[in-house]
Design a protein that fits this description.
- The chain is 39% helix and 14% strand.
- By secondary structure, the protein is an alpha/beta fold.
- The chain folds into two domains: 27-113, Leucine Dehydrogenase, chain A, domain 1 (Rossmann fold); 135-258, NAD(P)-binding Rossmann-like Domain (Rossmann fold), CATH 3.40.50.
- The strands form two sheets. It has a six-stranded parallel beta sheet.
- Helix 7 (168-177) links the parallel strand 5 (157-161) and strand 6.
- Helix 1 (8-24) packs parallel to helix 9 (258-276), helix 2 (41-56) packs across helix 9 and helix 6 crosses helix 7.
- The longest helix has 19 residues, at 258-276.
- The mean pLDDT is 95.
């Protein structure tokens, strides 16, 4: 058996084309406020990519680049201003923030209607209740990828190796909503290999190169890797060992799988915010 590679890059391109067509048909273009505090290199790169995605999708951006010395009160003031602007549909404050700023305070200050990252407790709570809302971009991208390949979680054993607020928890809710039986694993899970072998759908976001080996995979399982990691030789390999593809039925590549989908689903959320406006 050789796994079918799940092409997130191609699906993301399709989604972005659809977003662009709808955005260009609107009287006022969807608008995203991008807020960057400090000069963390990774954050600068992420914001640059998001700005480029917006341009590709017909979404206007308003950019705020603030110094690392920006106080929490100053940032809260900017968020309040953006909450009140009728020409701003979505607000994205790039994380992480400098250590003197409490991230949760900032995220909870964003108007839930403009919370396109879907980190506000209002949107988290609606997701828990299976009520339509904004969905965090990485879990939403994973679910869209499963749908593209006609993989239905209903009645299947779904195992997630991640319990974060950004990936593991919201993804568990989406899989439950889709009828899956969900197990969430983490650093203190006993006998991880046994739990993985039970999975019809295995999703790993541990960020540990080669954590999941072929002997941990149920034959024919769908295997989705979220994190990018490097092996001892410096090659990008994700959480899965090299022979996993010999046992899985579907597999995401280390690059071009979930990553492009995460960025595409942000565009979907911004469009939704504009439509709700």
């Amino acid at each position: 058996m050789s796994a079918i590679m799940m092409d997130g890059k191609a699906l993301a391109a399709d989604i972005k084309r659809d977003v662009k067509a709808k955005a260009l048909s609107m009287e006022h273009p969807p608008t995203l406020a991008l807020v960057l505090v400090g000069d963390d290199p990774a954050s600068v790169t992420y914001v640059t990519h998001k700005r480029r995605d917006c341009a590709d999708c017909g979404i206007r951006t308003v950019d705020y680049t603030l110094g690392a010395e920006t106080t929490q009160e100053e940032l809260l003031g900017l968020v309040a201003e953006l909450n009140g602007r009728r020409d701003v549909d979505g607000i994205l404050v790039q994380l992480p923030l400098p250590s003197h700023i409490h991230e949760r305070t900032i995220l909870e200050a964003i108007d839930p209607k403009k919370d396109v990252d879907a980190f506000h407790p209002f949107n988290v709570g609606r997701l828990m209740q299976f009520v339509p809302c904004y969905v965090p971009c990485t879990p939403a991208g994973i679910m869209a990828l499963l749908r593209r390949y006609d993989i239905d979680p209903a009645g299947k054993e779904c195992v997630i190796i991640n319990r974060s607020n950004i990936v593991g928890k919201p993804l568990a809710m989406l899989l439950l909503q889709a009828g899956g039986t969900v197990t969430v694993c983490h650093s203190r899970t006993a006998d991880l290999a046994r739990r993985c072998r039970q999975a019809d759908i295995l999703i790993a976001a541990a960020g540990k190169a080669g954590l999941v080996t072929a002997d941990m995979i149920k034959p024919g399982a769908v295997v989705v890797g979220v994190s990018m990691a490097r092996d001892d030789a410096g090659h990008i390999c994700g959480d899965f060992g090299p022979a996993v593809g010999d046992k899985a039925s579907y597999l995401t590549p280390p690059t071009g799988g979930v990553g492009p989908m995460t960025r595409a689903m942000l565009m979907v959320n911004v469009l939704k915010a504009a439509e709700n406006r």
